């Protein structure tokens, strides 16, 4: 590939709640490892309330848009999880609703990239609610145009392969189109969006994004929508869920010619501590070494040297113990695949509970 062409790794993932502290810790541990490569991670069904920006010691930032904190929990919430280097390039965040959030990213010069993360109403909601969601999404996408424009998330719809007359989806897909899938296709046709999942031929096990509780039904209901197909290098499901969820992450690799490279996040160092007696002794020693006519700059330099001499950098405390890390790895290994027998699902449930209790 041309070295001047960079790629943006964009993931959308239904996390099935990161509201409780232990779930958030579990999530951070799951995504902050070398096995998961991403620049922007869009989240759905976070269950987090209100509109907030949270900065973590790991160097990552979470922007989340949820339901009104004064109302009862309704299992919605969307967000973006990005490294500090990506966060510095964000021109703006729009906290639209508990189902839609947008960010605008500076990629080079005047070129902007807009990402809209969504969480659509599931089958337990009536069609009117789904239509209202699509209307709100249409309103969010209107107005300003962007060089790169992407809509990602859990649409709770089965689109399947393209049918006769379809212009917004490719020939590859999983399952038979349902009513919500038809609504989504009609929306994409009207909005000038293309469902990028269907551009790429994948085996069924690399296409499904959601697994039913009994592990007997696997559907493709998470999508990447785009206005231009050419920048999309690939859309693929990560082979295993990286977190305790019934969804798997969906990743799109997007070509960004001449774009800046985004550095991975680095943990913020803990502030040093000082022993008062040690600091006073060091200051006296360094000051005594100065001649009487020493300039002020030399005195300042001596005080700085004394501070460095007395500083004690605390060792960072691991966020999770080795035992918890082992339990999380075991949970990942036991995650059931489509058609898994009840015994396998029971083992996975027990592993999830053990990991969850170890995080409390």
Automatic annotation (TrEMBL):
<dbReference type="GO" id="GO:0003824">
    <property type="term" value="F:catalytic activity"/>
</dbReference>
<dbReference type="InterPro" id="IPR005135">
    <property type="entry name" value="Endo/exonuclease/phosphatase"/>
</dbReference>
<dbReference type="Pfam" id="PF03372">
    <property type="entry name" value="Exo_endo_phos"/>
</dbReference>
<dbReference type="InterPro" id="IPR036691">
    <property type="entry name" value="Endo/exonu/phosph_ase_sf"/>
</dbReference>
<feature type="domain" description="Endonuclease/exonuclease/phosphatase">
    <location>
        <begin position="11"/>
        <end position="247"/>
    </location>
</feature>
<protein>
    <submittedName>
        <fullName>Endonuclease/exonuclease/phosphatase domain-containing protein</fullName>
    </submittedName>
</protein>
<dbReference type="InterPro" id="IPR027124">
    <property type="entry name" value="Swc5/CFDP1/2"/>
</dbReference>
């Amino acid at each position: 590939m041309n070295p001047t062409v960079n790629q943006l790794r964009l993931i959308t993932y239904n996390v099935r709640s990161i509201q409780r502290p232990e779930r958030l810790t579990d999530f951070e541990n799951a995504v902050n490892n070398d096995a998961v490569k991403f620049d922007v991670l869009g989240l759905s069904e976070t269950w987090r309330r209100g509109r907030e920006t949270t900065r973590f010691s790991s160097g990552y930032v979470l922007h989340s848009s949820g339901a009104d904190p004064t109302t009862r929990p309704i299992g919605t919430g969307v967000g973006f999880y990005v490294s500090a280097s990506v966060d510095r390039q964000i021109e703006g965040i729009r906290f639209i609703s508990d189902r839609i959030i947008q960010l605008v990213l500076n990629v080079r010069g005047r070129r902007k990239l807009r990402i809209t993360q969504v969480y659509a109403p599931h089958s337990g909601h009536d069609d009117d609610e789904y239509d209202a969601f699509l209307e709100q999404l249409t309103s969010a996408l209107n107005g300003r145009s962007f060089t790169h424009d992407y809509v990602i998330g859990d649409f709770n719809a089965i689109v399947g392969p393209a049918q006769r007359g379809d212009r917004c989806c490719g020939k590859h897909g999983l399952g038979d189109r349902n009513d919500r899938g038809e609504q989504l296709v009609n929306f994409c046709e009207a909005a000038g969006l293309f469902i990028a999942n269907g551009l790429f031929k994948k085996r069924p096990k690399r296409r499904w994004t959601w697994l039913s509780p009994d592990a007997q039904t696997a559907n493709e209901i998470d999508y990447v929508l785009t206005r231009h197909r050419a920048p999309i290098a690939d859309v693929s499901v990560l082979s295993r869920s990286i977190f305790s969820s019934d969804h798997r992450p969906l990743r799109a690799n997007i070509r960004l010619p001449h774009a800046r490279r985004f550095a991975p996040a680095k943990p913020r160092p803990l502030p040093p501590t000082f022993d008062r007696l040690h600091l006073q002794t060091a200051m006296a020693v360094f000051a005594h070494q100065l001649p009487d006519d020493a300039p002020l700059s030399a005195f300042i330099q001596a005080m700085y040297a004394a501070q460095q001499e007395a500083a004690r950098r605390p060792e960072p405390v691991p966020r999770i113990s080795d035992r918890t890390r082992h339990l999380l790895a075991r949970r990942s290994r036991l995650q059931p695949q489509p058609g898994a027998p009840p015994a396998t699902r029971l083992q996975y449930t027990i592993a999830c509970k053990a990991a969850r209790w170890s995080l409390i």
